[in-house]
Specification:
Number of strands of chain A: 20
Structural class of chain B: mainly alpha
Shape of chain A: globular
CATH architecture of the largest domain in chain A: 3-Layer(aba) Sandwich
Number of domains of chain B: 1
Helix content of chain A: 25-40%
Largest sheet of chain A: 6 strands, mixed
Radius of gyration of chain B: 20 Å
Shape of chain B: globular
Oligomer: heterodimer
Strand content of chain A: 15-25%
CATH class of chain B: Mainly Alpha
Strand content of chain B: under 5%
Largest sheet of chain B: 2 strands, antiparallel
CATH architecture of chain B: Orthogonal Bundle
Structural class of chain A: alpha/beta
Number of helices of chain B: 14
Chain lengths: 507, 328
C-alpha cells in the first residue's frame, strides 16, 4: 500500500460534556477492509459520521489521497467517493427496488421522462453483483429486512464509492446472505475500494477484515491483525479489563421465586423480519432480585419481555411461565398487570406516554379503578396517589397539570416508572430504562431499583449497557438468538464475560 | 395572570370566544322590527337552538369518536334509519311509544358497537368502516321504508302514532324551550360530566393520545373503541327520533350530509382530529356558532349558497387558529 486512501489525524468531537472522540488517528488503505470495534458509546459511529460528512464541526484533519478535505455535508462526502450504509435502512417502502437505488438521481430518457427500463436493467445488474436474485420492480416494503439491507448495499455500490462504510451490515442477514455479502466485499477490495466494517461479530471480523481497530471511551485502544488475536483478548481491549472466564450458578437466595420461565418458545403466526422471538428461554427471578438480560442487538431481549407482558405477536407459545408459583399466560397487558407484572417499555415517547397529557393523567392511567367507585374518579384520592408517587420518584415538576412532554427525559421516565408502581406489581420488566436519560436521572433510577428490590419486588432488566448490567444486577442472563446461553453472578464476573458470551465465544 | 396565560386561556376557550364574537356580530347585523332586535327575541333564539339540536346531539357523539382518533361517517345515515324506524314502527306496525323508541335506540347502539368492533378488532380504519356503515344504514332505511317517506299522523287509530310521541316536539318551561333543545342540553351536560368524572374518560383520552402507550398501560383499548362507537351510534339514533318528531315523518333520505356538519362543529369546537385533545363543551359552542351563523344570514335574506361559502371560511379560520395555539 502506498499512501493511505483515507487518513484521519487527531480527530476529536465533544457533545456537551461528553468527549465522543479524543485525538483519534485512523487510516484506510485502498483495497483494505478495516474493522472498527468497540462497545456502545465508544465513538465508532461519531468517527464514521465525521468521515461521511454527517458531522462537520470537529477537531483534527481528514485527508483523502493525501489532500486535506473538509466536507460540508453527506452529499459533499459522496462526491468525494465516500458512502455510508446506515444501520437504519433509509429506503422508501412504497417504491420499487430500482426506484430506491436510483432515488434522487433517476435515469432519464431523451424526453426527460424516467427511463424505467434502463433503471431496472441497471438495478438487476447491481443486485446480481451483490449476489441477490431480486426482482427490481418489487416494492421494498415487501422485502425481508435482510433483503432490504442488501438493497442498501447495492445502492451504495451503485454510487461507485471509493470508500464504503458499513455499520453492522449483517445484523439481519442469513448465513448464506452473509457469505454472498463477503464475496461482494472481496470483489470490491480487489477493485481497490476501501471498506470500514463495523460489527460486533468476532467471527465475521476474523473472516473478512485485514485490520481491526478497537475504540474505547472515544480513544483508540489498539490496532491489530484480526486473525492473530483471540476473542478474549479483543473483548479485554474493548472493555478495558481482563476477562476471567468464571461461571457461577450461585443465585442470591433472597426471597421466594417471583418469576420462573421454563423453555419459553413463541412461534409467531406471521413471523416478522428482524424479530427474534423466544426460542427456548428458561430463567428465574426471585423476590428482591434484579436480574439482567444481556445480549447483542437482535438477541431477543425485548421480545422476551413482550411475551411475558402479553404483547408479543400472536402465535403458538410453548413452555411455561410461573408467577409466584402459579402458572400464567398473559394475553394482554391488562392481564399481565392483573397478575402483578409491570413493564417500562423501551421508548417512552412512542410507547410510554401521552406527551401532551398531564403528569396526573399519565401517572394514574394504569391504576384507575383503585380511585373512586362505580367508574367515577375520586379526584382527591387520585391526586394524592399521583403526588405520593411523584415524591417517591423525586420527580422534578411544576404542577401535576403540566404536560408530561415538558419534563426532562429522566423525569418522563420516572413518570412511566411511577405509573407501573401504582399498580403494585410483584415483577417489574424494564426495557432499556436509562436510554436517553442524563447521568443524574440514571443514578436516581438505579437508586430506586435498589429500593424496590429491597421491598421485595422482582426486577428483570434488559439493557445493552454492560456497565449498567454489571453494576445494577445481582445476576445476568445472556441471550443469543432467542435462547439463554449463560448466566452470571455479577459478584464474580464482569463486562468481559458478558460480552464474550453475547458474542458467542463462551459456552 | 401573565400575558402568556391570558393567551393560553384565549386559545383554550377559543370556540366559546368565537361563539361570543358571532353572537355580537349577529346582534349588530340583526334586522330590527319596531326597534326590537329580531335576533335576540325569545322565539328566534329558541329556533336557533332547535335548529342545531339534531346536529348538536350527533356532534356530541362525534366528539367521543374523534377524541379516540377516529371518525364516524355513518351518523347521518343512522339518523335517517332511526327516523324511518320510529315512523314505521309507530305508524305502520302500531308499536307503542316506548318500545319503538327503545328499539330504535338499541339499533343505533348495536350498529355503532359493530362498527367499533370492526375497527378495533380487525384493525380497519374507522373512516372506511363507517363509510361502509353509511351505505349499509342508508340501504336498511330504504328497505325498511320501501324507499318512501313515512308521514306521521297522531291519534289512537291504526296507522297513527301515539300522541305521546308528539310531545317530544312540543315546548316546555312555559312554552319557551322546545323539547328537542332540552334533549340536546341534557345529552351535552351528561357528556360533559361523564368526561370530567369517569375513569372511562381517562382511558378514552389515553387511547386517542397514544394508542400504543395506552395499550401497554393496561387500557382495554378494544373495549374503549367499541363503547365509543356504540355511544356515537346511540346518539345518532336519538337525533333521528328527534328529527322524525320535528318533521312529522321518517324518510330514508333524512340526514344526508349531517355527518359533515357534525364534524365541522367538533372541529370548530377545538377538538383535534388527531385524537386525545378536545372537549364536548367546545363542540356545543361550535354547533351553536354554526347555528347562529346560519340564523343571522337567513334573517338578512342572504342567499343560501353564500351561506355555504361563509360556513366553509369559518371552518378554515377555526382550524387555522388552532394551528396558532402555543405549544404549552
Amino acid at each position: 500500500m502506498g499512501g493511505a486512501l483515507v487518513r484521519m489525524v487527531g480527530i476529536g468531537k465533544r457533545y456537551g460534556g461528553v468527549q465522543a472522540c479524543r485525538a483519534i488517528d485512523f487510516t484506510l488503505g485502498a483495497g483494505e477492509v478495516h474493522a472498527l470495534l468497540g462497545e456502545n458509546g465508544a465513538g465508532k459511529s461519531t468517527l464514521m459520521r465525521i468521515l461521511s460528512g454527517d458531522v462537520t464541526d470537529y477537531d483534527g484533519q481528514i485527508e483523502i489521497d493525501g489532500t486535506p478535505v473538509g466536507f460540508s455535508g453527506p452529499p459533499d462526502a459522496q462526491a468525494a467517493g465516500i458512502a455510508m450504509i446506515h444501520q437504519e435502512l433509509d429506503l422508501v417502502p412504497g417504491l420499487s427496488v430500482a426506484d430506491n437505488i436510483f432515488l434522487g438521481r433517476e435515469l432519464r430518457t431523451p424526453l426527460r421522462t424516467v427511463d424505467r427500463r434502463r433503471m431496472e436493467g441497471s438495478a438487476r445488474a447491481l443486485l446480481a453483483r451483490s449476489g441477490v436474485r431480486l426482482d427490481p420492480r418489487r416494492p421494498v416494503g415487501e422485502l425481508r429486512v435482510g433483503e432490504q439491507q442488501l438493497v442498501t448495499i447495492a445502492k451504495a455500490i451503485s454510487l461507485d464509492a471509493r470508500v464504503l462504510i458499513m455499520d453492522e451490515p449483517t445484523s439481519a442477514l442469513t448465513t448464506a446472505e452473509v457469505e454472498r455479502l463477503f464475496d461482494v466485499i472481496r470483489e470490491l477490495r480487489r477493485a481497490g475500494v476501501g471498506i470500514v466494517y463495523i460489527s460486533h461479530r468476532m467471527e465475521e471480523i476474523a473472516q473478512i477484515a485485514d485490520r481491526a481497530t478497537v475504540l474505547r471511551n472515544g480513544e483508540v485502544v489498539t490496532s491489530f491483525d484480526p486473525r492473530a488475536l483471540s476473542t478474549a483478548e479483543v473483548v479485554e481491549a474493548m472493555v478495558g479489563r481482563p476477562v476471567q472466564t468464571m461461571f457461577t450458578t450461585a443465585e442470591t437466595d433472597t426471597g421466594a421465586e417471583v418469576l420462573r420461565v421454563e423453555s419459553l418458545k413463541l412461534t409467531a403466526r406471521r413471523p416478522r423480519p428482524g424479530r427474534r422471538d423466544p426460542d427456548g428461554i428458561s430463567l428465574t427471578v426471585r423476590a428482591g432480585e434484579i436480574v439482567g438480560l444481556a445480549g447483542l442487538l437482535g438477541a431477543g431481549r425485548t421480545e422476551l419481555l413482550e411475551t411475558l407482558y402479553g404483547v408479543a405477536p400472536r402465535g403458538a407459545v410453548e413452555g411455561r411461565i410461573f408467577l409466584q408459583g402459579k402458572e400464567i399466560r398473559p394475553r394482554s397487558p391488562r392481564q399481565a398487570l392483573a397478575h402483578g407484572i409491570g413493564l417500562v417499555p423501551e421508548d417512552r415517547r412512542t410507547s410510554g406516554l401521552v406527551l401532551f397529557h398531564s403528569i396526573l393523567a399519565n401517572t394514574v392511567v394504569s391504576s384507575l379503578p383503585a380511585y373512586g367507585r362505580l367508574g367515577v374518579i375520586a379526584r382527591r384520592q387520585e391526586r394524592a396517589a399521583s403526588v405520593g408517587m411523584a415524591e417517591r420518584m423525586r420527580l422534578k415538576f411544576g404542577r401535576l397539570q403540566d404536560e408530561v412532554g415538558t419534563l426532562s427525559g429522566g423525569n418522563q421516565q420516572k413518570v412511566v416508572f411511577g405509573r407501573m408502581l401504582l399498580t403494585e406489581p410483584r415483577l417489574l420488566l424494564l426495557d432499556e430504562p436509562t436510554r436517553g436519560v442524563d447521568v443524574g436521572a440514571k443514578a436516581e433510577i438505579y437508586r430506586l431499583l435498589g429500593e424496590l428490590a429491597g421491598q421485595g419486588l422482582g426486577v428483570l432488566l434488559a439493557s445493552s449497557e454492560l456497565p449498567e448490567l454489571v453494576g445494577v444486577c445481582d445476576r445476568v442472563v445472556v441471550l443469543r438468538d432467542g435462547r439463554d446461553v449463560a448466566s452470571f453472578s455479577t459478584a464474580n464476573s464482569g463486562e468481559g464475560e458478558l460480552l464474550a458470551a453475547a458474542m458467542g465465544e463462551l459456552q | 395572570m401573565t400575558k402568556n396565560s391570558v393567551v393560553a386561556t384565549l386559545f383554550r376557550f377559543q370556540s366559546v370566544f368565537g361563539l361570543l364574537a358571532v353572537v355580537v356580530a349577529a346582534i349588530i347585523f340583526s334586522p330590527r322590527k319596531n326597534g326590537a332586535i329580531l335576533f335576540v327575541s325569545a322565539d328566534n333564539l329558541a329556533n336557533v337552538v332547535r335548529a342545531v339540536s339534531e346536529i348538536g346531539i350527533i356532534a356530541v357523539g362525534m366528539t367521543f369518536v374523534i377524541l379516540i382518533g377516529g371518525i364516524d361517517l355513518s351518523v347521518g345515515a343512522m339518523l335517517g334509519l332511526a327516523a324511518v324506524g320510529s315512523a314505521v314502527l309507530m305508524v305502520e306496525s302500531d308499536w307503542g311509544f316506548l318500545p319503538s323508541v327503545l328499539l330504535v335506540l338499541v339499533i343505533g347502539l348495536v350498529f355503532g358497537a359493530l362498527q367499533g368492533a370492526a375497527t378495533a378488532m380487525i384493525g380497519i380504519q374507522s373512516f372506511i368502516v363507517t363509510l361502509a356503515g353509511l351505505q349499509i344504514a342508508r340501504g336498511l332505511a330504504r328497505i325498511w321504508s320501501d324507499g318512501q317517506g313515512v308521514a306521521i299522523a297522531y291519534g289512537d287509530g291504526p296507522n297513527e302514532a301515539p300522541a305521546s310521541f308528539a310531545l317530544l316536539g312540543e315546548r316546555t318551561f312555559g312554552g319557551l324551550v322546545p323539547i328537542p333543545v332540552l334533549i340536546f342540553a341534557v345529552v351535552a351536560v351528561a357528556a360533559i360530566v361523564f368526561l370530567r368524572v369517569s375513569a372511562f374518560s381517562r382511558h378514552l383520552y389515553a387511547v386517542g393520545g397514544n394508542e400504543k402507550a395506552a395499550r401497554l398501560s393496561g387500557v382495554p383499548v378494544v373495549r374503549v373503541k367499541v363503547a365509543v362507537f356504540a355511544i356515537c351510534g346511540l346518539l345518532a339514533a336519538l337525533a333521528g327520533i328527534v328529527h322524525a318528531v320535528q318533521l312529522n315523518q321518517g324518510s330514508p333520505n333524512d340526514g344526508i350530509g349531517y355527518e359533515l356538519d357534525a364534524i365541522a362543529a367538533v372541529v370548530i369546537g377545538g377538538t383535534s382530529l388527531a385524537g386525545g385533545r378536545g372537549s364536548v363543551a367546545g363542540t356545543v359552542a361550535g354547533a351553536l356558532l354554526l347555528g347562529v351563523l346560519n340564523n343571522i344570514l337567513a334573517l338578512n335574506n342572504i342567499d343560501s349558497n353564500i351561506q355555504l361559502l361563509i360556513k366553509g371560511l369559518v371552518i378554515v379560520a377555526a382550524a387555522a387558529l388552532q394551528r396558532l395555539r402555543p405549544a404549552s
